[in-house]
Amino acid sequence: MLLAAMKYVKAIYPGTFDPLTNGHLDLIERGSKIVDELVVAILSNADKGTPLFTVGERIEMIAEAIAVQGFANVTVTTFDGLLVEFARAQGAKAVLRGIRAISDYEYEFPMAMMNRRLSPNLETLFMMPAEQYTYVSSRLIKGVFNLGGDVSELVPPLVVQRLKAKGTRKI
Ligand SMILES: Nc1ncnc2c1ncn2[C@@H]1O[C@H](COP(=O)(O)OP(=O)(O)O)[C@@H](O)[C@H]1O
Ligand SMILES: [Mg+2]
Q1: What's the 5 CA to ligand 1 centre distance in angstroms?
Q2: How many domains would you assign to the chain?
Q3: Would you put residue 48 in left (φ > 0), alpha (ψ -120 to 50) or beta?
Q4: Which of 55, 76, 163, 169 could connect to 40 by a Cys-Cys bridge, CB 3.0–4.6 Å?
Q5: Residue of the nearest CA to atom 10 in ligand 1?
């Protein structure tokens, strides 16, 4: 029992999720299978320009997708400030991030190293999505949708509905 408790791994999957894609969901599924508890955490102070969806809308979409998929050990929340501080407050041992291509690695590696410097015991886990999602990004989804392209196989149906419901389309 004590040993089991010591091995308990809670991980944070941080990101912008504007909006959630099947690539994110693929990673959530893979992550949820190897950790005990996975917290999807939307960074609310992201320095990425104006998001299409509010944090509240993004939480709703992720919560709904988690429920549809039946991921019992996955929750969603929001945070701002330093990821390492949030992880510490949550009692998380790991951060989950996705690698689609070398370009992701170039961005992720210094961030992981900086997080390690700030919080030496917090590990960053990198996972690759299924091949068909290696080119999927929230930004590309928004861009293609705005131009009338079909993105229905790349995001959950509930996200397609939300994209359609957005009156003003912005990239
Ligand atoms: N299609 C995908 N397959 C695998 N991982 C992905 C995919 N899209 C995004 N990710 C990963 O999910 C995490 C969150 O991505 P994103 O929502 O773009 O937020 P961020 O602003 O942190 O990049 C990142 O680690 C990113 O590499
Ligand atoms: Mg990104």
Answers
A1: 30
A2: 1
A3: alpha
A4: 76
A5: 98
Instruction: Tell me, rounded to whole angstroms, the distance of Cα 46 from its chain centroid.
Output: 13
Q: Residue 84: give the domain boundaries.
A: 8-165
Q: Is 121 exposed, middle or buried (0-12, 13-18, 19+ CB in 10 A)?
A: exposed
Q: Catalytic pick from 58, 97, 138, 142?
A: 138
Average pLDDT, consecutive stretches of 10 residues, N- to C-terminus, the chain (171 residues): 73 98 98 98 85 96 98 98 98 98 95 98 98 97 95 97 79 49
Is residue 3 in a domain? no
Q: Report pTM.
A: 0.94
Identify which of 74, 52, 49, 45 has the alpha carbon closest to the alpha carbon of residue 62: 74
